[in-house]
Amino acid sequence: MDHRHDIGWDEATWLNPPAATARDGADLLVTARDGSDFWRTTGYGFVRDDGHALLTGFPAGSAVEVTFLARFDALYDQAGLMIRVDESSWIKAGVEMSDGVPHLGAVVTHGRSDWSLSPVPDWDGRLVTVRASRTGDAVTVRARTPEDPWRMVRLAPLEAEAEASAGPFCCSPRRAGLQVRFTRFTTGLADTALHEDPVG
C-alpha cells in the first residue's frame, strides 16, 4: 500500500528563495540565481550556502520524494533533493552536469563536503525521482526515471536525534537562467530495509 502524501508547494519553506518561481498547473517552476550553490571547503577551498531548497520536516522513520525535470546545459547545473540539519550538516542528491554529461550523485556534508557521481547520459531531459528514507542513524538515497528501476545512490549518516528538514533543491553555480520543473513532492513512511525497493 502506498502511504505517501503530497506536500503542497506553499506548505514548505524556502531556504534562500530563488530568482523566480511560477506555477504551471500542479507543477512548480523554479529559476535558480546565478552563482547559487551548496558546498563546504573540500577541494575548492570555499563555502557556499546560497542554493535554493524548499524544505519540510523530515523526522526519523519517514521518507521524502521529489520528482523534477530540467535541461542541464552548464557545468554544475543541478537539482534534486536536499536534507538539512544546519549550514554545516546536510545532504544533497540528484542530477548534476559535469564534464558535459548529466550525472547522478550526492554531496554529504558534515563540516566538510564530499562528492560522488555516476554518469547518466540517458537521463537527460527526463523526469527523475529522488527518494530519501530515514531510519536509525542513516539516510538511504535512491533515484530513478519512470522507465527505470530504483538505483542506490548513497547510504549516509544522520544522527538519530537530529532535527532535519528535506525537500526539492536546485543550484546554478556558473550561470543565470536555469529553470527546473518540480512535478511532485511527497512524504511517507521510511523504507523497511536497505535493499528493499521502496513502495511505488
From TrEMBL:
Gene3D superfamilies: 2.60.120.200. InterPro entries: ConA-like_dom_sf (IPR013320), DUF1349 (IPR009784), UCP022704 (IPR015987). It comes from the Bacteria. Pfam families: DUF1349. Signal peptide: none annotated. PANTHER family: REGULATION OF ENOLASE PROTEIN 1. This is DUF1349 domain-containing protein. The lineage of its organism: Bacteria, Bacillati, Actinomycetota, Actinomycetes, Kitasatosporales.
